[in-house]
Amino acid sequence: MAPRKTTKAAEEMTEEKKTTRAKKVKEPKEPNVSIVLQFQGRNTDMNNLVEAVKSSFRAEGHQEDIDTISLYVQPENGIAYYVVNENDEGRAVRF
């Protein structure tokens, strides 16, 4: 018996079926991060410090959205300096 001839359309359908059966990949879940600064017997939760920066920024009368926060922590002084949106400088409350 001679092998069956296949049409080009049938070959393309077979190829499509092979490519559509790809396995679904799970998106990795972002971890819940907690950062605690320990210095001279004190613990400071950095997430709380970020919230204090946001509050301080809003208390100064800024209404724009906060896109970036750069935080500079000086544990020896108990002060964190910050830059919001790469141009608005201020000082967070003491921690």
* Low-pLDDT regions: none
Can you count the beta strands?
5
Main sheet overview: 3 strands, antiparallel
Bin the helical content: 25-40%
The overall pLDDT average reads 83
What is the rounded distance between the termini?
Answer: 87 Å
Judging from the principal axes of the Cα atoms, what is the shape? elongated
| SSE order | HEEHEEE
- SS strand fraction: 25-35%
Number of helices: 2
Radius of gyration: 28 Å
Query: What structural category do the secondary elements indicate?
Result: alpha+beta
Order of neighbouring strands in the sheet with most strands: 3-4-5
Task: Give a concise summary.
The protein has 95 residues and is an alpha+beta fold. The protein is 28% helix and 25% strand.
Descriptors:
95 residues; 3-stranded antiparallel β-sheet; two-stranded antiparallel sheet; 28% helix
Structural notes for this entry:
- The protein has a domain at 29-91.
- The protein contains two helices and five strands, in the order H-E-E-H-E-E-E.
- The model has no long low-confidence stretch (mean pLDDT 83).
- It is α+β, with helices and mostly antiparallel strands.
- The radius of gyration is 28 Å and the shape is elongated.
- It has helices at 8-20, 46-59, and strands at residues 36-39, 42-45, 69-74, 79-84, 88-91.
- The strands form two sheets. The protein has a three-stranded antiparallel sheet with strand order 3-4-5, with helices on one face.
